[in-house]
Specification:
With 294 residues, this protein is an alpha/beta fold. It is built from eleven helices and eleven strands. Helix 6 crosses helix 7. GO terms for molecular function: oxidoreductase activity, acting on paired donors, with incorporation or reduction of molecular oxygen.
Amino acid sequence: MADRPFRFGIVAGLAAAGPTWAETARRAENLGYATLLVPDTLWTLSPWVALGAAAAGTSTLRLGTFVLNAPLRTPAAVAHETMSLDLVSGGRFELGLGAGRHGAEAEAARLGLRWGTPGERVDQLAETIRTVKETLAKSAADAAAGQARGPVLRAVQQPGPPIMVAGAGRRLLTLAAREADIVALGVPPTGTEYDLATKVGELRDVAGDRFDRLEIAYNLAAVGDELPGWLAGQLGADPAELVRSGSAAILRGTSTEVADALRRRRDALGISYITVNGAFMDQLAPVVEALAGR
């Protein structure tokens, strides 16, 4: 499990102005982060617009959704946007998908969309993945056969961009284990190291022989000893209390101590893809410098 090198990404989706957003992307790239990930909410930038703008201002930074709510889009729309963004980014896009985060039902209502039951949303996620893969394969086949008149819209990455699936429930983890390249563990900020290990165990159980082919991701809510007051509103709990209860999502201490904690997780659980709240991009940067690609 420790053989897979570390990757690091930031999760961000807000900016006061266009130049500010472009600078966020460039700074992430310059600090050695592998990815810029944009959430899918109605109170952050549109992920497609934000990632397209970030692609124009960077050259090596990979770009991803974290994660698209499958119930809020048709599968065909996701497939089209995936090919488009992979093309304009020069093959740097990673498609992150989920069956719907907590609280997104209200956003679906604002958009005039049906939310559906948990089972229906997982079914829609599965259909979205199937449609994306089939659309990518067909566009590649059409281009190779020269069937289209003129240029063909086709992803740069073949057979297609990596797919990340975020989830916690067994049915969703089973789908992720079967179809995804990357699995983002759905462990809330209240989750402890034990909860994290339990979720990895569930994934291993449903993935079987495919487990070692999966890149396992986990999102950090905060890093460092200075925890801003606004973090409580974002996490829905007092950060200091989360630390006292052993939250796995908040890492404190020196850069060396944080790096050691991440190494231990990778050795024990195989978690090698670390994403972090973009507000803590600078705090994690020394760890990125020490561990990225190693």
